[in-house]
Amino acid sequence: MKVKISFLLMAAILMVLASCSNQQEGPGKSNVTRIGVMLTEDGLGDQSFNDSSFKGLKKAREGLGIEFDYREIAETDTYEKGLTELVKDGNDLIIGVGFSMQEDLEKVAKKYPKKQFLLIDAASEVKNVTSVTFKEEQGSYLAGALAAMTTKSDVIGFVGGVDADVIHRFEKGFSKGAKSINPKIIILTTYAGTFNDAGKGGTIAKEMIKKKADVLYAAAGYTGVGVLKQAQAERKYAIGVDSDQYFTAEKAVISSMVKKVDEVVYQFSEQLVKNNKIKSGHVVYDLSNNGLDMARIRVLKNTEPLTEKLNELKQTLLDEEEAAS
């Protein structure tokens, strides 16, 4: 009887010790790769940058077996708080989606120097932060050329989200591409000052259309959704951005300049799963490595000549880049 009691007591002690060991190990110590993502202020449903990131995460979950978690600014109030929560929850990689959170992400990265961070759409010099940027001017060049080949009024419009370097690259590329087709084309430009106000985007679009703009291009997040919908309401054309936004306004969106954020997220997830770490430094995505592209042309009746011209322009850009390198 005493032997039986001693055996049960010993088993109980072992279970307690095992439990304590697991508690000390904390979250994130299992064999499953865990990724945490901090989204921009637009949150899920922006039909753009955040949704594209989420698409990449879901692909990585299905294809690589990762687990992921995310935070939105609406629930954390600040990027710093959300990023810190993702670190403390034991994620192996923390991804910041968007240049607007660079300062907060760098602050958290310095506080947790052994943790890996990925910053999309901005370049950081912090050692444990891998940076990803895109050559938006290349894709926007193609968008501008398409707008110039589509317009009947020779007036087109560009709507930017906030006044920032990355959005300036969109604008300059768009203008250069349009003028490569028609040097005398008129390009109306307005910066909304926000990425998450569809109503304001619609108002800006309405003003541009009053000034005879009949093709609108918006690099403005959820604000841009308002631009696309207003273009559709007034039977004008629009070009989407970041992801294929055709389904946002199916009678207006002729194409979209796609930044393949979903593929970037998937590729870095794959690196993490295979190597337990991601590539460090600054990684640039452009037309040459399939980081940017134009979605297929819809809505318009005769798309083949336009597609052929865009492919020619794409090759020209690639040749120019190769010659410059």
Structure description:
The structure is a single chain. By secondary structure, this protein is an alpha/beta fold. The chain has eleven helices and twelve strands. The strands form two sheets. It has a six-stranded parallel beta sheet, with helices on both faces. Helix 2 (49-64) links the parallel strand 1 (34-38) and strand 2 (67-71). The relative contact order is 0.13. The model is unreliable at 1-29 (pLDDT under 50).
In short:
Helices cover 49% and strands 19% of the residues.
Sheet/helix structural class: alpha/beta
- Relative helix content: 40-55%
- Shape, please? globular
Strand runs, count: 12
For the record, give the distance between the C-alpha atoms at the N and C termini, rounded to a whole number: 83 Å
Number of helices: 11
Biggest sheet strand line-up: 2-1-3-4-5-11
Query: Which stretches are poorly predicted, pLDDT < 50 over at least 5 residues?
Result: 1-29
Secondary-structure element order, N to C: HEHEHHEHEEHEHEHEHEEHEEH
Strand count, sense and barrel status of the largest sheet are: 6 strands, parallel
